[in-house]
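Case study 2.
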Amino acid sequence: MRFNPFNNLTLKIGAVLLALLLWVHVATNKAYEYQLDATLVLSNVPAGLVLVSDFPSTMTLRVKATGKQLIALATKDIVVQVDASEFREGSIEHDLTDRIAAAAFDQVYERVEIAFPRKLFLRFERVSEKNVLIESEVKAKPAEGFLIAGRPRIEPEMIRVSGPATIIRNLKKVSTAAVELNGLTTSTSHKVRLMVPDSLHLSLSDSSVTISLNVEPMAERSLDSLAIRAPLDFDASRFTYYPRLTSVRVGFPTSMRDSVDWRQIRASFEADGGYRDSTRAAIKYALPGNVVLVGNPLDSVQIHQR
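Prediction:
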């Protein structure tokens, strides 16, 4: 009689599956040890206190449980809570017990223990708060032929900051994120995030401010025969300089056409290495707010000994 492997195929496959299920049942009923990372959180911090030390975001646990339990556990996010309700101001050395780790699970396992960390070193300070100024780190550059009129407007100009008393006491300002705006041709407003290092443990009443910029077309004017002034330390009895006059062309927002004080535009010179015969000294230009030099004006004078 010839052997036919396909005889009673359904019965054979069923026997194999039954044996496999029996093996899985036996294997998953055994106890195994499993190591996993759990999220670590600090809860119930007393009112008026703030944590100023580092706090680990995770802890490593060792769990002994059946295979079935471990398979179910692999799909869960475990959160271990450290109750801070009894903590006080100052430095604290706190032991972590296996009991708080076991409380993070929704069922009982043969063993749950903490592998790391077993101890926390914490420091709490009293919370203080005050209003501080906002400093803009927005760098704005208008397109050619345009100027930014006036100072950027920050709304709000101040913000309420709370945090550790030692930090708040010395805090003078909060800065925005560094943002570059190039090629502006129209007035604009931008929402900009406020930036504080996490290490300062500060809380802000708002996470961002609005920076508004007034952009206008640029008007121009030429100033001829602008006197070049000598600095106070220049010895006019020993030296002279040339030229003594210069011409400049300046640009300004069109809305300021009738309000610029042209007397505030000044030219002076200064030599870094001191004054001596045949030395060139760089010219410095003083300009009112929102007024800029257009083109390349005279950049230096020649010093001569009398």
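DSSP finds four helices and 21 strands in the chain.
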